Structures are given as structure tokens and as C-alpha cells.
Amino acid sequence: MEKKASLEELENRIGYQFKDSNLLRQAMTHSSFSNEHRLSRLTSNERLEFLGDAVLEIVTSDYLYAKFPKLPEGDLTKTRASIVCEQTLAFCTREIELGSYLLLGKGEDLTGGRDRNSIVSDAMEALIGAIYLDGGFANAKEFIYKFILSDIEHKQLFYDSKTILQEIVQSDYKAELVYELVGEEGPDHNKQFIVNAVIGDEVVGHGVGRTKKAAEQEAAYSAIVKLKKS
Q1: Does residue 116 come out as left (phi exceeding 0), alpha (psi in the -120 to 50 range) or beta?
Q2: What does the alpha-carbon distance between residue 143 and residue 122 come to, in Å, rounded to a whole number?
Q3: Strands, E assignment, the chain
Q4: Which residue among the candidates 53, 108, 134, 160 is catalytic per the annotation?
Q5: Which of 29, 49, 108, 220 would you call most buried, defined as having the most Cβ atoms within 10 angstroms of its Cβ?
Q6: 125 classed as catalytic
Q7: pTM of the model
Q8: Lowest mean pLDDT among 49-63, 71-85, 90-104, 149-163
Q9: Distances (CA, A) of 49 to 66, 118, 132, 155, 158
Q10: Whose CA is closest to 62, among 115, 124, 140, 125?
Q11: pLDDT (tens digit, 9 = 90+) per residue, 199-218?
Q12: Could you report the per-residue pLDDT of 171-187, keeping only the tens digit for each?
């Protein structure tokens, strides 16, 4: 599939058609691609990421201020931080499979860049910046509401999954919660860690991640979802 077609597919996924398709291409251009093709650093998505980060923060702040009128400043700040952090933004990109549309250098691509939280979360912010420049604040806000601020309780659950699971175990179980590394896949430069969350002798969650910490977070999240259902 050609890159142009891929970016058109991304537009369909997010429900926004760019007037200036160059903005979308830039939002999806990682610095490794610019470096490899000897392009100016200004062709990468870093400046758009800077802009999108600011737009995301003001939209999220406005949303939380209105949604939680009795929440003090400290709690609002903490909640906003949990929404706009790298892990949660990377989680939000899964719905639109944003990593598959990135323009990466060959080395970055081969070492798992499309799944790396830091890269896809930056691309999400760059996409917000691109929509803001192309279609104005209202369109950027609509995108943020649709893909980031929708179901924030669920996303906060993911962000705080290890803490929440520990609290559940301490409250409802006598056994200890442990995270067991059960496997590793892939070469050293592109390794995946496989972790189980275990309460006593029961495996309650399973996670895979680029780091052990990320795999534990996934395992905790899957455990919470499973325990809540039961």
C-alpha cells in the first residue's frame, strides 16, 4: 500500500479530511525518517507535537474543570497528568492503529518503533497539532473528545492499573500479588516481555510489552478487567 493511500485511510479512521495533506504527512513523519532521507529536521513531527501538546492540555483542562466542579486544583492536575501522559496517549492510539501509519527510518522500524509508547504518543500530539492548524480549535477539540477524553474512567484504570490491582488484592484477598516474567520474544533490539499477574496460585492477568514495566501494567489492567467481570 502506498503511503498516500495509507494516510487517506487514516483520515477515514479519524473522521477528519485534511485540506492540507502535507500537514498530516508531517504529523506522521518521525525524525528518524527525516534523518535517513537527509531532510531538514523541520520536516519531522516535532514542532507539531509541541503545538498539539499545548492544545491537548487546554482542552483536557477545560473538560475536567467542567466535568468535576467540586474537584480541587491538586486533584484536577493529577487527573490531567494521568490522561496526557505517554502511557495513556499510547493506549489511546490503539483504536486507530496510529503506529502503522508512521513514516520511520528503517532502523527505527526494525527495532519496534511503531509500537514504542514514546513514538506513538508523540505522533498523537503531532496529529492534534496538525488538525488544529488545518481545521481550527473546534476540530482539534472534537478529535480529542472522540479519541482521548472518551471513557476516561477506563483509561485512568489503565494508567493506575498496578495501584488499583494492589488495592483490590489487599482488600479482597489473603494471598499476595506478584508479577511473574514468563517469557521473552524477539531479538535484543526488539524484545517483547511476557508477564503474568498472579494472586496466590491463580493467574489473573496477562501482559506483553517492550519493557517489563509495560508488560506488568498490561497484566494488571487485564487482571482488573477480569476480576470486575467476575
Answers
A1: beta
A2: 16
A3: 177-185, 192-199, 202-209
A4: 53
A5: 220
A6: yes
A7: 0.82
A8: 149-163
A9: 26, 12, 11, 21, 23
A10: 140
A11: 999 999 999 888 898 899 99
A12: 988 899 999 999 998 77
